[in-house]
Each structure stands twice: as structure tokens, then as C-alpha cells.
TrEMBL record:
GO molecular function: RNA-directed DNA polymerase activity
Top class in the EC scheme: transferase
Alphabetical list of PROSITE patterns matching this protein: RT_POL
Origin species: Amycolatopsis roodepoortensis
Domain Reverse transcriptase: 94-346
Protein name in the entry: RNA-directed DNA polymerase
Cross-referenced SUPFAM superfamilies: DNA/RNA polymerases (SSF56672)
Length: 489
């Protein structure tokens, strides 16, 4: 589940205006040319990759990521580069190695983390070296505006200015318009199984520069240093954790977007509401794909059999990319039964006290269990952590969680979680200070009986999730602007 609500792609605020303007202008030109000529294959991109301005922006992005403190196989972190080598010297050496062709990516350091939900399964992350991360970020700065011109609007993960909430709003929009059958799909080990040959073929549709293609392929073939210290070749997949991996995954999975949404293009059999209505009157289905990275659903205006046909079609489209749907996690459901997507529970149900049916978006059970587990770990009764530091961490967790889910039917959930956090803290403080309930009331109420918020000695106040305003997220449809073109009117 995504952990925050801001759009994908952060702002780069502390780079000198000169490099920022140069890279932004370069990206805008590449995007404009790609839009103007869908068949164009770009050559001479390598000069943009090793341009000093591009590398400077790339390093700034790497330094601003949460993984900046994690070392690769060479043991260096971003802080080590800044303190021991110096950023200008580091980028100069990196640029020279790129220009003379001596740059070679090192294997990524493998780290296994448990998958959410308590299934016992693990997710393999790859941690590249700082130099490799900077080159990957530079490649993404150059390649992203080109491929964004081709990406279909129905994908929302790891794309500029797009949120998970946009994907949920899309499902809500079409669910209220008769798309009631759902193919809730799960791609088995997507990032580990993408076929390199098929992926590179799709990259070559837009990129002609052999030096850039060689660099992308080198990252795919860089290998993995396992937690046991063994070197393993990467014959398939793009390791999660690399900056370039999400873009490469979107390039691979765009084959699904293009196939399912081809009929929605101008002139297609589903391109207008009139044409879609004509199909339905003839007993033919219509469908709509909503994808967030490797998680996707297909909404079908038709029957369960129509949805099963779409299921088989999707499996055939993914097979050449080396991917297959998980039999255990892929299901066909009716919207009245509901399904989970990106941490939300989406269901078509009758409004209480009326005969009207609406599509509702709730918070799924798993993210609630997950956030409660985090709160429990921080508020153990025997914890001796400073209250101010504890409140800061709790507030960060609750604010991020509430901002992500505040567009769902969440008011009761927010109130329940606020109550849960309050009681966890009160029990911890009672055990720590050996307070009685009378002591608690004396410290946290005023003479008229009104309760005061839990406050640390440094003035940090516990965030009250129950006061978060719950609002409907505005469906943006095809009006979502990217980073290089103005928003459509």
C-alpha cells in the first residue's frame, strides 16, 4: 500500500536555478517531440544523461530519498560521499567514467523485508550503490518525459502528479456508471520476472541511442549480492529498490494498458459514450482498466462470463513479458461483494434507510491492523522513550495515514484509532509513573471536566486523528497534467 498521499515525484527545491532550468527545458523538449511524433526513436540522449546539470539533479534526488542512508555493496552512503569525497569531485569522476565508457554498475545489495499482512512471505529489495543510484536517476530524468508521451492515462503508479487516490476515484466513477463486475488481478512476482528481452524491445521503440540502451541493459544484468554473500545473476526482472525500476516496470506493463484501452482511443469502438452504449445494447461488454504499478483491476460493464473472457485475454497479453497472474490472488468479483485495492475497500451497497445504491470507499482491514501494530510497538507499557520524541513519531504516522485515507468513509475509523492511541499512551504513562486513574484525571482534565490533549514537556501535542476532515476526492479523469504540459481546460 502506498504510504503517503502526495503525488508521485517530489519537488527538487534546493538545486541552483541554472541546472534546474536546464534540465526542465531539456525534459519539456523531449516530451514535446515525443508527443508530436509517436513513432520517433530518440538518438543522442547519452549527452543529456552525463550532462553536469542532469547529474546534479540526480544526486539531489538520491540524497533526498529515504534510502540515502542505506549503503550498497561498496559500503558508501550519501553522507560518506558528501564528507569524504565531496559532491563536485564525485560527480566529476562519475561523469568522466560515463563519457569514456568505463562505468559499470555493481551488483545490488539484497535486503529481504516481510510483506504486509502477516503472510510470512518476504519482498526482495535491491540497494544499489550511490553512484549507480545517481546514474539511474539521471537516466530516469531523460527517459521519463519520452515514455510519458506514450503511457495511457489509466495507469497511476510512479508517474508524475498522479496519486493512488486518482486510481480509487477512477474506480468509483466507473463503478457508479454500471461497471459492476471486477477482475481483481495480482501479477505473480512482477518485478522479479519481467523478461529482459521483451522489456528492451519496448525501450527500443523509443530509444535509438546505443549507449543509453547499453546502460539500461547493464543495470538489468548487474546481479544481486544476497544476504548470505552470494553473487546471483539477474536473468529476469528489475530489482525493487532501484530508482529506474518503477519506470522500467511501467514500460513493460504498458503493453497491458495499450491492449485493453486500444478501443478507447479516438475512432475506437469504445471511444465515445454513444459507441459504448451501442455495444451494450447489442449485448457486448465494455471495460475499463485501472492500474497502479503492478496492481490493477479491470472493471467490466457486462456479465461474469465477459469478465472471465477479459481475464483470459489479460493472461495472454502478459505472457510474452514473462509475467503471469497469480491463481490464488486473482479473482472475479461483483462490486456488491466488494474488493480491496491500494488499502481501500470498495463496494457497491445500499444506502442505509433508502432504496438507493452507491459505490462506497472504506478503509480495508489490513492497513488498520498495520497501523495499530506500529502504534503498539511504540507504546509498550515498559517503554522508557522520551514522551516528546514518542509523540513526534506517533504524529508522523497518524498524519500520513490520515492524509492517505481521508477521502474514504473514514470518520468512525479515525475516531476509533484516535481513541486507541490515547488509551495506549495513558496506560503507558500510568505504568511509567505509577499513576492511579485519579492522577490521570488530575493531570489531563480542567475543573469543568473537559479533557486536555496529551502534551509533552517540550510542548509537543498528540495529534487528534478524529478531527481530520473527511472529503470526497475529486475525480480528475484525463485532465491530470504531467510535469511538462499545462493542465487541460
Amino acid at each position: 500500500m502506498p504510504k503517503d498521499a502526495p503525488p508521485n515525484g517530489g519537488a527538487l527545491d534546493h538545486i541552483p536555478q541554472g541546472p534546474r532550468s536546464r534540465v526542465s527545458e531539456m525534459q519539456a523538449k523531449l516530451h514535446r517531440w515525443a508527443v508530436a511524433d509517436p513513432g520517433r526513436r530518440f538518438d543522442d540522449l547519452f549527452n543529456f544523461v552525463h550532462d553536469p546539470a542532469t547529474l546534479m539533479m540526480a544526486f539531489d534526488r538520491v540524497a533526498g530519498n529515504r534510502g540515502a542512508r542505506a549503503p550498497g555493496v561498496d559500503g558508501l552512503t550519501v553522507a560518506d560521499v558528501e564528507e569524504r569525497i565531496g559532491v563536485p569531485g564525485f560527480l566529476d569522476d562519475l561523469r568522466n567514467s560515463l563519457k569514456d565508457g568505463s562505468f559499470r554498475p555493481l551488483p545490488v545489495r539484497e535486503r529481504k523485508i516481510p510483506k504486509p499482512g502477516g503472510s510470512g512471505k518476504v519482498r526482495r529489495l535491491g540497494i544499489p550503490t550511490v553512484a549507480d543510484r545517481v546514474v539511474q536517476a539521471a537516466l530516469k530524468l531523460v527517459l521519463e518525459p519520452i515514455f510519458e508521451a506514450d503511457f495511457v492515462p489509466v495507469s497511476y503508479g510512479f508517474r508524475p502528479n498522479r496519486r493512488a487516490q486518482d486510481a480509487i476515484a477512477e474506480i468509483h466513477h466507473f463503478g457508479t456508471r454500471g461497471y459492476r463486475w471486477v477482475l481483481d488481478a495480482d501479477i505473480e512476482a512482477c518485478f522479479d520476472r519481467i523478461d529482459h528481452t521483451a522489456l528492451m524491445d519496448r525501450v527500443r521503440h523509443r530509444v535509438k541511442d546505443k549507449r543509453v540502451l547499453t546502460l539500461v541493459k547493464a543495470f538489468l544484468k548487474a546481479g544481486i549480492l544476497t544476504e548470505l554473500g552470494e553473487n546471483r545473476e539477474t536473468v529476469t526482472g528489475t530489482p525493487q529498490g532501484g530508482i529506474l525500476s518503477p519506470l522500467l516496470a511501467n514500460i513493460a506493463l504498458s503493453v497491458l494498458d495499450e491492449h485493453l484501452m486500444a478501443t478507447w482511443k479516438p475512432g475506437g469502438t469504445m471511444s465515445t459514450e454513444g459507441k459504448r452504449g451501442y455495444r451494450r445494447r447489442k449485448g457486448l461488454p465494455t471495460w475499463r482498466l485501472v492500474r497502479y504499478a503492478d496492481d490493477f483491476v479491470v472493471l467490466v460493464h457486462g456479465t461474469e462470463h465477459d469478465t472471465q473472457v477479459v481475464h483470459e485475454d489479460v493472461a495472454k497479453v502478459l505472457a510474452p513479458m514473462g509475467l503471469r497472474l497469480s491463481p490464488a490472488k486473482t479473482q472475479i468479483v461483483h462490486l456488491a461483494d466488494g474488493f480491496n485495492f491500494l488499502g481501500f475497500r470498495i463496494q457497491w451497497r445500499r444506502k442505509r434507510g433508502t432504496d438507493k445504491w452507491h459505490v462506497y470507499t472504506f478503509i480495508a482491514d489490513r492497513p488498520i491492523r498495520s497501523v495499530k501494530d506500529k502504534i503498539r510497538a511504540l507504546t509498550h507499557r515498559q517503554s522508557q522513550q522520551d514522551l516528546g520524541s514518542l509523540l513526534i513519531r506517533l504524529n508522523q504516522i497518524m498524519r500520513g495515514w490520515a492524509n492517505y485515507f481521508k477521502h474514504a468513509v473514514a470518520k468512525d475509523r479515525f475516531a476509533a484509532l484516535a481513541n486507541f492511541v490515547w488509551w495506549r499512551l495513558i496506560r503507558m504513562l500510568k505504568a511509567r509513573h505509577r499513576w492511579s486513574w485519579k492522577d490521570v484525571r488530575r493531570r489531563f482534565t480542567i475543573p469543568n471536566g473537559r479533557w486536555l490533549p496529551i502534551t509533552a514537556t517540550d510542548g509537543t501535542v498528540l495529534f487528534n486523528m478524529a478531527k481530520v476532515t473527511v472529503t470526497r476526492y475529486r475525480w480528475r479523469g484525463n485532465r491530470i497534467p504531467n510535469r511538462w504540459t499545462p493542465a487541460p481546460t
